[in-house]
């Protein structure tokens, strides 16, 4: 088993990226982004997640996270991905307005069939690509800037704080959509 992309040390702060299978643009819909935000908030309040920065793009997510003492980050990530995928898939299946419903369910079903860990559907790719951040502030700033500039680089907004589904506003102006654990000032 590979150890390259593992959340080894529970005391570390990690930069984590994970994507929807097939890089499907699920998060173009606010409903699905909001479900993910609810899941992040729940894990923060109930599962020991420390959420330092985040951005939700159309088909992937970047987080800077750690865990409270006594909690294991791999378990938090497992629960976050499991619950959010369950809820988002449920919404897609039950939707009467989702124009991409059949196409997305077909792709999620196909991905699930190809993975022995799933029964029917697979929503998230199984990898998280965690990178342990060195405790010096420059590395934190570098990753926070990278994460917050994702929507700018994608041509969605001109300024990081203009993108609603990101913690950039927390670092620049104040309170964003969900509570976070600031790393800097």
Characterize this entry briefly.
By secondary structure, this protein is α+β, with helices and mostly antiparallel strands.
What brief labels describe this structure?
4 strands; single chain; 185 residues; Alpha-Beta Plaits; alpha+beta
Number of helices, counting only DSSP H or I runs of 4 residues or more: 5
Number of domains: 1
- What's the helical proportion of residues? 40-55%
Instruction: Please identify, by name, the CATH architecture.
Output: 2-Layer Sandwich
CATH class: Alpha Beta
What's the total number of strands? 4
Oligomer: single chain
The CATH topology is given as: Alpha-Beta Plaits
Percent of residues in β-strands: 5-15%
Please give the alpha-carbon distance between the first and last residues: 39 Å
The SSE string, one letter per element, is EHEEHHEHH
Q: Biggest sheet: strands, sense, closure? A: 4 strands, antiparallel
The rough form would be described as: globular
Write down the Rg.
Answer: 16 Å
Average residue pLDDT = 90
Unreliable residue runs: none
Tell me what the structure shows.
It holds the Pfam family Y1_Tnp. InterPro entries: RAYT_transposase, Transposase_17, Transposase_17_sf. This is Transposase. Keywords: Membrane, Transmembrane, Transmembrane helix. The structure is a single chain. With about 180 residues, the protein is α+β, with helices and mostly antiparallel strands. The protein has one domain: Alpha-Beta Plaits, CATH 3.30.70. Helix content is about 40%, strand content about 15%. The chain contains five helices and four strands; from the N terminus they run βαββααβαα. It has helices at about 30-45, 75-95, 100-115, 135-155, 170, and strands at about 15-20, 50-55, 60-65, 130. A four-stranded antiparallel sheet has the order 2-3-1-4. It is globular and about 45 Å long. About 35% of the residues are buried. The model has no long low-confidence stretch (mean pLDDT about 90).
């Amino acid at each position: 088993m590979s150890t390259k992309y593992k959340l080894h040390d529970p005391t570390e702060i990690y930069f984590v990226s994970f994507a929807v299978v097939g890089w499907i643009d699920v998060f173009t819909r606010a409903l699905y982004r909001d479900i993910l935000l609810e899941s992040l908030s729940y894990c923060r309040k109930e599962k020991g997640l420390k959420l330092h920065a985040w951005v939700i793009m159309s088909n992937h997510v970047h987080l800077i996270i750690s865990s409270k003492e006594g909690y294991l980050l791999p378990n938090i990530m497992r629960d976050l991905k499991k619950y959010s995928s369950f809820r988002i898939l449920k919404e897609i299946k039950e939707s009467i307005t989702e124009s991409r419903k059949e196409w997305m369910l077909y792709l999620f079903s196909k991905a699930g069939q190809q993975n022995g860990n799933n029964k029917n559907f697979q929503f998230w790719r199984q990898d998280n690509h965690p990178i342990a951040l060195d405790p010096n502030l420059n590395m934190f700033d570098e990753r926070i800037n990278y994460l917050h500039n994702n929507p700018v680089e994608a041509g969605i907004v001109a300024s990081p704080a203009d993108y609603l589904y990101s913690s950039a506003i927390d670092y620049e102006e104040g309170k964003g959509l969900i509570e976070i654990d600031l790393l800097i000032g």
